[in-house]
């Protein structure tokens, strides 16, 4: 009886700890959906996959199961792109998700790994300081000094763990990793093995192992991939949302999720306010108004969908804690201005001109124009 009670207490504490996390991993946040898909899935599964490729795409794109459970869409866009990405991971080819900042590359990578192998946590974050050890392995120097080189002294990287366990590993910002370090992936991806020359051994990849990498194609100061490494990847380019309605749906969904996660005591933002933010971002990003009648100058920043989500989320917090709980133009203005004006000289001119030539003349936007002018 004591053992049983203790076990229940531990489980409850673990569940409480997860619920209190600022951000849950995809496999935890959507555990119910993943479990339901696995139960309902009767199609063939690649080795070590927890569901079939078709079920993975359903998890990403959304749908309704025979049980009546709705699977929430994780990606709003071209279904074929997700089918290509999933099919790639079912082969011996690694997957490179490429696109401008804010096109959900990391989000898709995380959910792919969670759906396929049950964990999205085997991840290497690419930076200018990422070393070869972060990709291959390091050493426990206390054991190394005490006993010399041994498997016991090897500290495996997330990639080594994925190879050992037959899981998906993730590499964020691949092109941020120095070129000489990037080459560490070539043997892993081509030979499906990780040599440990100090021990005259190697770690063979188990069935189910693969790698998802992400990279921005507009970043400055990136390290171009070698042709040898490029050949080891199938590349899927994730574009910005094709239509304004798709982008509004993405922002609305993610802001609702953030509002719940941060327990923001405000009303859900009205569709009209989200449409304003998305409209401004799309017009400045594309250099033309949504009706195609007027050209506008473009600022230096990318004005991605991710930034639009951030602007609406921040505005919601302002409305909750310093307003009446309803998102207004005043709550949005400072966030939009901060997103647009990255260069204090050039972008400030672009923003002022946009306000005077587009926003001022737009029906139903007088409140936004006045709030923007008041904060300028």
TrEMBL record:
Q: Which PANTHER family match?
A: MAGNESIUM-CHELATASE SUBUNIT CHLD, MOXR FAMILY PROTEIN
Which residue intervals make up region (Disordered)?
1-26
The protein's matches in SUPFAM superfamilies, at most eight in alphabetical order, are given as: P-loop containing nucleoside triphosphate hydrolases
Domain ATPase dynein-related AAA, chain residue ranges per copy = 95-233
> One GO MF term, please?
ATP hydrolysis activity
Which residue ranges have biased composition labelled Low complexity? 1-20
Alphabetical list of Pfam families matching this protein: AAA_5
The record's annotation in Gene3D superfamilies points to: P-loop containing nucleotide triphosphate hydrolases (3.40.50.300)
Which superkingdom, per the lineage? Bacteria
What's the protein called, per UniProt? ATPase
């Amino acid at each position: 009886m004591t053992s049983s009670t203790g076990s229940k207490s531990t489980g409850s504490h673990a569940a409480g700890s997860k619920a209190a996390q600022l951000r849950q991993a995809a496999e935890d946040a959507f555990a119910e959906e993943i479990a339901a898909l696995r139960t309902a899935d009767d199609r063939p599964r690649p080795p070590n996959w927890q569901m079939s490729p078709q079920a993975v795409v359903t998890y990403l794109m959304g749908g309704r199961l025979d049980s009546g459970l709705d699977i929430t869409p994780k990606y709003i866009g071209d279904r074929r792109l997700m089918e290509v990405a999933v099919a790639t991971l079912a082969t011996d080819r690694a997957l490179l998700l490429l696109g401008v900042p804010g096109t959900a590359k990391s989000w898709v990578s995380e959910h792919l790994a969670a759906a396929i192998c049950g964990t999205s946590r085997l991840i290497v974050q690419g930076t200018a300081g990422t070393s070869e050890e972060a990709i291959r392995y390091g050493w426990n120097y206390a054991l190394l000094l005490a006993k010399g080189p041994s498997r016991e002294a090897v500290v495996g990287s997330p990639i080594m763990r994925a190879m050992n366990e037959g899981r998906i590993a993730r590499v964020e910002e691949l092109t941020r990793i120095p070129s000489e370090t990037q080459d560490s992936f070539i043997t892993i991806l081509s030979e499906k093995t990780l040599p440990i020359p100090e021990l005259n051994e190697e770690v063979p990849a188990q069935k189910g192992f693969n790698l998802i990498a992400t990279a921005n194609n507009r970043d400055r100061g990136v390290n171009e991939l070698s042709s040898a490494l490029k050949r080891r990847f199938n590349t899927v380019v994730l574009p910005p949302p094709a239509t304004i309605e798709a982008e509004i749906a993405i922002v609305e969904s993610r802001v609702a999720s953030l509002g719940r996660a941060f327990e923001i005591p405000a009303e859900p933002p009205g569709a009209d306010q989200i449409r304003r933010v998305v409209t401004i971002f799309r017009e400045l990003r594309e250099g033309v108004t949504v009706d195609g009648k007027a050209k506008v100058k473009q600022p230096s920043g990318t004005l991605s969908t991710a930034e639009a989500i951030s602007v609406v989320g921040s505005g919601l917090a302002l409305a909750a804690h310093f307003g009446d709980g309803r998102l207004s133009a005043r709550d949005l203005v400072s966030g939009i201005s901060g997103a647009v004006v990255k260069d204090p000289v050039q972008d400030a001119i672009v923003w002022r001109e946009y306000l005077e030539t587009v926003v001022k003349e737009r029906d139903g936007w007088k409140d936004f124009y006045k709030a923007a002018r008041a904060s300028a």
